[in-house]
Amino acid sequence: MRLTEITYGSALAIESYGPGFFRVGTHVLRGASLITPWDAGAWGGLLDMAAPLSLAGKIDVLLVGLGPEVSVIPRGFRLALEEVGIGVEPMNTPAACRTYNVLLGEGRRIAAAVLPVP
């Protein structure tokens, strides 16, 4: 099998994650984080809709990492994002990190809102 190294250009990939942290570029983020191809920072969790809503028109899909297990996203959170044209994909945090990097490598308009794993 031939393997090809993925390059992201200037976009920010999730380099690693672990108990309570995410490494994005040269930064280590602690706690819940919102990661886009151009920026990464703290996120207030599922009650913080303002930060993801500010991405309207810039992304098509928000991957939501819900920690070690998949759980239900609050209906209001999902509906608010869908109203502004952002699709919401819930998954566990490890899957959200991997999926974000794959879609980033494909040039997709995505972001990840991730809760840390213990």
Could you walk me through the main structural features you see in this protein, from its secondary elements to its overall organization?
- The chain is 22% helix and 31% strand.
- It has one domain: Hypothetical Protein Mth938, Chain: A, CATH 3.40.1230.10.
- The protein starts with 13 loop residues before the first strand and ends with a strand.
- The protein is built from three helices and eight strands, in the order βββββαβαβαβ.
- It has a five-stranded mixed sheet, with helices on both faces. The protein has a three-stranded antiparallel sheet with strand order 1-2-3, covered by helices on one side.
- It has 118 residues and is α/β, with parallel strands linked by helices.
Strand and helix map with partners:
Elements: E1 14-18, E2 21-24, E3 27-30, E4 33-35, E5 40-42, H1 50-53, E6 61-66, H2 75-83, E7 87-91, H3 93-105, E8 110-115
Parallel strand pairs: 6-7, 6-8
Antiparallel strand pairs: 1-2, 2-3, 4-5, 4-8
